[in-house]
Amino acid sequence: MKNLAIFLFIVTVCCSCSNGKNPEGYGDSEAAKWLRMAAEDGVVYAQYYYAECCLDGDGTKVDAAEAVKYLRSAAGAGCHQAMFLLGKCYRDGRGVKPSEKEARKYFEAAAKKGNADAKAALLAMERAARAQKR
User: Fold this and answer.
1) In whole angstroms, what is the distance from residue 99 CA to residue 9 CA?
2) For 60, which DSSP code?
3) Tell me: the pLDDT tens digits for 53-76?
4) In the chain, how many domains are there?
5) What is the CA radius of gyration of the chain?
């Protein structure tokens, strides 16, 4: 229950920051701090959102390797958004050595859970592979 309360607080802060309606004065770095705490505590969606912060530098320094660590954990717990984002990291070589095989693995896992972006990424990979054969 503590994890859920922390996560809900973080979501509220993040949403209010992104909408410019944050009367308490919390900023991105404060939200990222709390998000990381929840991620470390095993809150799956906090792991995903904190990984996004690490990739984009929102409230924390850009750290793709740190993002990949949390994406692996969230993807392992079944978070299709994390699976998709981890696939992108492997495709683009962000925080990991580029690997089309690993990218495809995570895109396929996310697509099986209904992730439309992963389906589109797989289609793009297939088109690129066909174009190379020509």
Assistant:
1) 36
2) S
3) 999 998 899 999 999 999 999 999
4) 1
5) 16
d(CA 132, CA 79): 32
Count helices and strands (H / E) in the chain.
7, 0
CATH classification at residue 123: 1.25.40.10
Instruction: Answer yes or no: are the C-beta atoms of 51 and 74 closer than 8 Å.
Output: yes
Q: Are 48 and 86 in contact (CB under 8 A)?
A: no
Q: What three-state secondary structure class fits 42?
A: coil
pLDDT tens digits for range 79-111 = 999 999 999 999 999 999 999 999 999 999 999
Torsion over CA of 129, 97, 93 and 59, rounded to 10 degrees? 150
For 26, the domain range is 2-133
CA 6 to chain centre: 19
Cα angle for residues 72, 4, 87 (degrees, 5° grid):
20
From residue 86, alpha-carbon distances to 3, 108, 123, 124 in Å are: 24, 11, 17, 16
